Every structure is written in structure tokens, then in C-alpha cells.
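Section 3.1: Structural characterization of target chains.
Under the original work plan, the team committed to producing a structural model for every single-chain target entering the pipeline before any wet-lab resources were allocated. The record below documents one such target. The sequence was received from the expression subgroup and is listed exactly as submitted; it comprises 434 residues.
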Amino acid sequence: MKLFFSKELLTILVLALITTCSFAQVNDPSFIIGDALPDAPELSVRGDYKVGVRTLELIHKNQVDILQSKGGTAPLYNRHLKIEVWYPAIIPPGKTALVSYNSTLGLWKDSARPLIPFSFNGRALRDATPDLSAGKFPLIIVSHGYPGSRLLLTYLTENLASKGYVVVAIDHTESTYSDRSPFQSTLLNRAKDILFVLNELADLAKPGSKNFLTGLADADNTALIGYSMGGYGVLNAAGAGYSNKFDTSFSQMTGGSNAIKVRTTNNDEFKASYDSRIKAVVAFAPWGMQRGVWDAEGLQGLKVPTLFVAGNLDDVSGYEDGTKAIYKGAVNANRYLLTYENGRHNVAPNPPPAASLKAGVSFNEYYHYAEPSWNEYRINNINQHFVTAFVGIYLKQKEYGKYLDVPEHSNEKSWTGFKPRTATGLELIHALPK
């Protein structure tokens, strides 16, 4: 007997199957965010090191409190920055590298999107003993979007730690889900937070600091990774000075405050802040180009190797006049641009948490993580692959060039490191310094 289904019924059945599989995947305790899918590219697989994780709190004293600016002046305050640190570790017999992370959906003081706690698992052991057998490891600092959290990219932070890096992700004060405040704080403090954390980690890693990072982190060999507003921050921290146009608009937003001037291209303090310890940058969908944050002169200040990652339909940071324009303008950097065709802005975060799939939760919570045309687990694996290749080359001098030296369009010919028939919908372009 033949069964006939209308197109409408068939669509419903297919969607139900997809939803069921998604729930099963998310809720399967044996599958954890960041694990390699069957079609994951070669370098996405975790490395040989077991991973430990710890939470620290740093205090950046006497910073401009731009949210209290009145008449062009602002008081000073202490910025408390919570950071999460992943590192190669020793897992004692009988212990399992498994950790539960606690985060939130929603937005602070927003009745339409109330804060909803949720937790998810990772492959790390809380407060594990550092593995010092191989000496110091390169440092990677990660900066989230607005709003976001230090746990937004755990698929990547854990993965890199397993490959022999100390990875530090920042909760940027007044920019997380739990304390989101007006945008001016994020605009002013991103690059400053990143450079402060780099200096603090360097101090904590020094002999005699009596910190678990002593002898573990090599701050002289650092990469920066940023997503969205984090991308805005890491590019500036690495040398791309903000334009005078942006300085003027910021001053107008803050009642005449010129506090951001110290991060503009020709400012003496900005020039003095150039940090040669920063060897590479990864910028996922960096925000700002459409808003006049950079001009040609400012982008020329970016001289370290940079990997840009974006969706060509990004409707937050822009693509042709956003990330790709930054890529084109950074003429003094050895740079790459990886593009997800039909991708929008969410090409960096973890997959949508199970809590965002529940009935009654705002659609915005799901879509702060999800992509309309891409499986986020798939994006995660591809990011792991390319970031591993990129930082491996510039922080560890690995022979990973073949993974970046691929045909421009993946649809034309399979890319090195990808299984047959799996490299589709991607573009990777490369430009050398002028």
C-alpha cells in the first residue's frame, strides 16, 4: 500500500524530525559543545592535553566611569573583571574532565527578556593542577560580544587549551547579559580591558607570583580573539586606531567627554600602548566600520597577522562595508578573510543552549546564538579548524600553511583538511602586507 503526503504534511514531518534530532543532540550527555561532528575538518579535533579551568577576578583601578559623565567630566571607578582561564592540566586518576558552566539568557533589567539561568557541560576539570611538563604555553585572550559572557565561545576556548595554549576569556563589566548597561561603556573599555588583562596575566605568570599561572602562560607570545564588539576591541588593542570622526561622535554621545581620544590613531598615549607581545589577531564579525570607527589611516596601524571571519549577510556588523572593508583597509597586515556564504552575524558563539528552545522563551534568546542557514555545531568545528591553523602558525610556528593555502571558493575544489564533499559554502581570501 502506498502512502501519499501533502507538501504541507511532509514539511511538518521533516521539521519535526529536525527538531527532535536537535533536542537529542543538545541533551545527549555524551555529546558536549565543541565535540567534533563526523564531518568536522581535520584540525577541529581536540589536542593531546587535558584541560583545567579556573575563575579569577581582576580589578582595573581608577578607570573613567563614562556612564556617570556629566558636562564632559566623569568620575573614576574600579572595574571588576571576571575572567575564565583554560589551560593544559593534569587529571588525577578517578577524576573526569567534566565541568558545568553557569550562564544566563536574557538581559539585565529588561522585562521583555528577563534573565534565565542555564547551565551546560564542558570538557575541563575545575581547579585542576596545571601541566608544567612542557614548559610555558602561548597566551590567548578572548573578548565576547555585546551583550555576551566569558562563556560564549567555550567550544573554542577548551579546544585551544587542549592544544597547548592558556586561554583567558573576559566578562567585560557593563557588557554581559547579567549587567548590560548603556553602550558607551563598551565603546570606551573594550580595548582597555583587553590590554589590562594581558598585563595582569603577564604579572601572574612571573616567577614568584605564587599564582597557578606561574611558569604556565607565556604572555610574550599572545593572540587576541574577539567577536562583534570583541572584534572591535581586539583590532584597536592590536594597533588599529579609532578615527577622529568616531572620537567626535563618542564625545557627542557622552556630553562632551573625550575619554576615547586615548585610543585614536594619532594620540600619543595610543601610540605608546602598542604591544609587541601581540603576535596574531582573530576577529569574528568585528563591529564598527559602518559607523565610522575606522578610517584608512587607522586601519594601517594593524600590522600583526589577522584572521577575519564573517557571514556575507551580516546585518549587524555589515560585510562589504563592514568586515570585508576592514580586511581590505588593513593594508599593513598579513591577513585572511574566511566567509560563511549566507551567514549572518552569529558565526562565532556556542550553539543555542537548550534553555533557549523551551516554550515561552523569547525568540531573541535563540537567535542570539543561531544562524538561519548554518548548523552552529558545524560552524564551531570549522572555526576550531581554521583558528587552530592560524594561531598554530603564528604562535607555535606549526607547518599549517596548507590549511590556509586553499582555493578561494570551497565549492570549486575540496579544501585541505576537509572530508570529501564537505567543503561547501565557504570562501577564504588572503592578502599580504603592501
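The chain has one domain: 7-431.
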